[in-house]
Amino acid sequence: MTARTPRLSRLRRLTPGRGEDGAGRSGRRRAAAPKVVALGGGQGLSASLAALRRISGDLTAVVTVADDGGSSGRLREELGVLPPGDLRKALAALCGDDDWGQTWARVIQHRFQSQGDLHGHAVGNLLIVALWEQLGDPVQALDLVGRLLGAQGRVLPMSAVPLELQALVKGHDPARPEDVDTVRGQATVALTPGEVHSVQVVPRDPPAVPEAVAAVLDADWVVLGPGSWFSSVIPHLLVPELLDALVETKARRVLSLNLAPQPGETEGFSPQRHLEVLARHAPKLALDVVLADEAAVPDRESLADAAKRFGAAVELAPVAREDGSPKHDPELLAAAYDRIFRMHGRIGPWR
């Protein structure tokens, strides 16, 4: 327990009652599928959401808000808003496979090409920011965009304020390979040369979005990853109220590993190294399952040992696209998640 436990107790009152129809663990809405919360950012979270929406009708995405590059960075700097880019990608991933869903997914992902100020801006970023300014409530605005798109789930920011990511990097300057420097900004950290030792966010104690905390506390399953390890996955563990919820939730927790190390950020990392750095940032976090592509794990015993430190079992499954790219196949990933939910979940009313 932490000093923030009373706050979590208050936030629990935001969640529906356990015995109420349509919300509780014995309610009718739970009869079809488990309630799932997925945390991350960027393409990794999008891949996870595209898979999860195929097997759960009760899905919430909790998205990092530290992006400072591209269109998001420009809007953040000019207007002082949360960076909308990763939120937009999550909404696009939750669009259905029908004509309406796929049309809107393409529209919000469309980027203007010009010689002027609009160049590089994504339509969805502008739409989200416009609604933030109109409504004055980031959660309400994202819910409205989700309804417009017919999104099969809810998208929430992990924090109510834009965050700056800072990393301690050894050998960031090739001329000083043994020195450790502080690298600032998510876009810079994601591509930094050298070895990332740790990351932190500024402000150091950011407020969590209450709806995100409530979703984690009320979930059946929480999915963390895949994604850029230091700039999209670990930042969720640096929001104290959100970390408290992840530690205290009664939900089962699955960590989905990447298919390959990311150039710059996790260059040369083994699958078990990803778990080791996660443990350094959140030593109290427990996991139930670690999911990895069977072809991406050269040393299964070492990965199993690293997973045991979290109390987790390892599940290996073919989840990569057949074209050889380091990208997840939504159908294969959905099948892997579904099997994990069936085999490792508490006996729940959705089965």
Walk me through the structure.
The protein has 351 residues and is an alpha/beta fold. It is 39% helix and 16% strand. It has 14 helices and ten strands. A seven-stranded parallel beta sheet has the order 3-2-1-7-8-9-10, with helices on both faces. A three-stranded antiparallel beta sheet has the order 5-4-6. Helix 12 links the parallel strand 8 (252-256) and strand 9. Helix 2 (42-52) packs across helix 14 and helix 4 packs antiparallel against helix 5 (99-109). The protein is globular and about 50 Å long. It starts with a helix and ends in a 7-residue tail after the last helix. The model is unreliable at 1-31 and 347-351 (pLDDT under 50).
